[in-house]
Protein 1
Amino acid sequence: MDREVILEARGLTKRFGGIVANHNIDMKLYEREIIAIVGDNGAGKSTLIKAISGIYQPEGGEIYIRGQKVEIHNPIDAKSHGIETVYQDEGLIRLFNPSMNLFLGRERLRKNVFGKLLRLVDYRFMRNETEKLLERIDIRLKDINAEVSALSGGQRQSVVVGRAVYWGSKIIILDEPTNNLGVKEERKIIELIKTLRDKHDMSVIVISHNINHVFELVDRIIVLRNGEKVGERLKKETNINEIVSMITGVAE
Amino acid sequence: MKGKREAIDKGEQLIEGERTRERIGSVFNRMRGLNIFLGLVVVAAVLSVSTEHFFTAYNLIQMFRLSSFVGIMALGAVFVLSQGDVDISVASIYSVVGVIAAVLIQGGVPVGLSVLIGFLFGVLCGFTNIFLSLLFNMPVLIITLGTSSIFRGLGLIISKGSSIYEFPKESIFFQFFGGDIGRVPFSIFAYLFITFILFVVYRHMRFGIHVRAIGGNRRIARAMGIKLNRTRIFVLMLNGALAAIAALLNFAYIRSAAPNIGRGLEFMVIASAIIGGTSLTGGSGSVWGALIGALLIEIIRNGMVLLGIDVYWSPVVTGLVIIAAVAVDYLSRRKRNV
């Protein structure tokens, strides 16, 4: 593969008391690549992404971004290295509208003296930017000013993904992106994730239980079992049966 | 093939369900601010027609003045509740600040300095609440359960339990801050000015967004890089400062202070904020709503007096209004699933 490695983890190890949730895991993510991390419940998928996104501090191992070793102590560090994580519970403030969520913590101040001295925010700018962004990622909302709680699950996922696109993240981690969605919404999210790679030059890590979606979406699959990496396969060189037997540890 | 068709149908139904929720959510959202204002207008209209003295300049001004003390503290409650905290010590801060200023003046300390020390003590009370909350990692509500008793106790100790009156009348503090401009008490101007400033802070400053974000979802707010502790400390200090301002305006007007004033006022304060559309569970609120909420409580009390209803019924009616306001907030949240 001639593409650059954008994210690499070497020897990641995370323990919870006596339980080893991740043992010495190596993984690579290339530019413009979608990979899946699959495994049974308790295989260590969530622990692995939480270590990369700064929620957990691993006991051992290193993380490299474009070959440079980085220290990720918290989610803000991860964001500053261009890693955005989208969890099942979405990471949006439900009482806020999409625009305020998009800019939360990075609000745009007015360009005049009020913005400089009083730190007044520029709602109009933020709303316009949100409209442009939603158009760019092909999401239509009935009322852009409605609070996020009024949106469907898929629309909320889209807003979070859109936030990563807007702020120029290069790596996005999606935790069960198609869970609890209607059929149409599933399609929409799958198309959106493909767009991230094809149009926005992003790299994506997907965690999913849905092996069909994984096969439709990704370029490469990493399989974890009991906290260890048991293997990885390029999608075009494997099939569902092989991956399932790797997940369960039962030979065909 | 048939199975696939069914799955798509099911998906459509789910989406239709989402849409219905969406409609209910946005209607509720838009109505909340308006409801309370309409309520106020209706009550005022009914009282104007049914009583002789309600709609007179004097009565309206006095009602507004009386509501301003609870109202100023309710502005603080909007911020505190919005960030997901509850402070029930404001009424005690209100009493101790007045006592401190009064005792200092009688002890010969210049009036201006006494008032300043009283104000700073109020800010310190607010800081103490949040400091203890962060230190012991306990909710502000629990801390203020204790500090409300402590602050009031300090007022009793300092004043030896008795009211304090007789002050130098010629002082600018009593003349100006306790006086009228035209026929309108100064405290009303101060109240409106503070409300406007805090409205800008709450709605248009970055700080206000962060306050609401913390109450909306603390975990997400932190993940987005919002400085949680700094914001919460500032809000609780602001709350103490507002209780102190209310106390000092009241002190200037009535020219006396007592350690027992304002007992039970903390619930009127929180009620005003909630009636005005501030959520008891954090994340959203309205500064102007709190002003209207405080006024509505005062109008109900005033109206009952004018209608000749036994004044002892007024807390009962106020309580019913509070329950209605909380119920509206709770139901709208449950419908919107937040």
Protein 2
Amino acid sequence: MVLEFEKPIADLEQKLQEMKDLAQGKSIDLSADIQSLEEKIKALKKETFQNLTRWQRVQLSRHAERPYALDYIYEITQDFIEIHGDRSVKDDKAMIGGLGDIDGRSVMFIGQQKGRNTKQRQERNFGMANPEGYRKALRLMKMAEKFGKPIVTLIDTPGAFPGLEAEERGQGEAIARNLKEMFKLTVPVICIIIGEGASGGALGIAIGDKVFMLENTWYSVISPESCSSILWRSWDYKEQAAEALKLTANDMLSNKLIDGIIEEPLGGAHKDMKTMSKTLKETILKALAELDKMKPDKRIETRINKFCSMGVVNE
Amino acid sequence: MAWFKRTDKGIKTSTEEKKDAPDGLWFKTPQGNIIHTRELKNNSYVCPDDDYHVKIGSKEYFEILFDNNQFKELDANMTSGDPLNFTDSKPYPARIEATIKKTDLKDAVRSAVGKIDGQDIVIACMDFNFIGGSMGSVVGEKIARAIDHSLKNKIPFLMISKSGGARMMEAGFSLMQMAKTSAKLALLDDAKIPYISLLTDPTTGGVTASYAMLGDFNIAEPGALIGFAGPRVIRETIGKDLPKGFQSSEFVLEHGFLDFIIDRRQLKSRLSTLLRLLKN
């Protein structure tokens, strides 16, 4: 899949490949042309990705080739044991979790998981968790607390699932309880938006000592499409809505609603998964080292004060 | 031939002679029962014929609950900022200003401290008239400070919710109000101070997914719409009509997320009993 603004780059890359193939087969020397084309591609990439609109970043956050939670987890851990079920209703496959180790340190991972193909997408419910998903997440967090393991959550959801059974089983209550309980966790909690961060469905696993966003992700109270349909009464204003919502990592950081931005490789996380995972791992380890120095009480107090300072009012 | 014949043409009543018949003197319930508004007020804004609970705001709830309508309002002058320079069909500050003018309210929640049958209580009550009772920074901050007041003075906290959810015009900021209010409720939890959450028609979205569902007691008025996702969104998602009574207070009670449903006419006495039982 190639996005509209990725197309000029993809075209040049294809040309480059053709040129390389041509040069290989025969004994013509095209190295000068190849080099100049490579430089041209690099410049175009830089220009494109430095000037992305908010809507383009939303598109990147949903890119079909973008790495998902389990991709990162398997990449950055030596061992990983996935844990299932909320011990009450079922195993929600839109919310995954388990114990893994990064550089010898055990961490409880929790995250929303999307699918790669139609079958998987259905199984993962497009990354939209039901109440049992949030309850599963809370169960794993409590387990992490019991065994003194830090928690890393990877957020990637278009929202909590708005279905019939979700309402019957208390979607609102499940998310609300997570918010409250996450403030009480005695272990370090690091939350990272790796794709889409839609509203309460994202926040339900995003109360952390450190909240980061990858460079090309979004995090807000509503998706640009839904915002457009409510405020403009049409689906056509999603680009305007994305601008108005100020939902990118840059926006969220400048409004002090997150703690940091994690840089993506040029062209986006999906272009270089290895580099992205390495940066992600380094960020987690650095944050953990910082949080380790604080006493649990102090960490909780700081966590509470941070979220309580968010908001702008006139008095 | 008609038995009545009008001799004079046109209406001849002079302005001074006209009788004053004010609007809104009578109220018609969805079932069609008509009741005089004074009668309605004396009946806690519940229609005696069909028990319909009229949607009311903070002014009426305070009047119903606080002894002799005596209370001290907290943060009465807090108003909304415009952190995102948000503009849709009109700029957010203009929308706020127009709403303040129209409703005589400062934002979608009012908080106050007073007494219920002589027992201290802090009440925060939402007003649906103010941009659909939407939760922005002011709502979050006022609730947070009301809880601070409860914490400091060890007084039980009652939250009356009535909201369509988060306020889009404050985007990320409004989302974080869910976190803020939940953080304060975690502190209230640790301090073992009672928190009663009353859900009224309607309570949906981010409000349901934060403070409204976090009570030691989650209670509701009869027939209220209570849910996370709105009925329209769910209908579109599943592509089917919703069963009758879906997301009503009775439905939510049946599924185990409410402690009890309370008729507004018994609200004060029931709250009073509950507070007493918790204290003694």
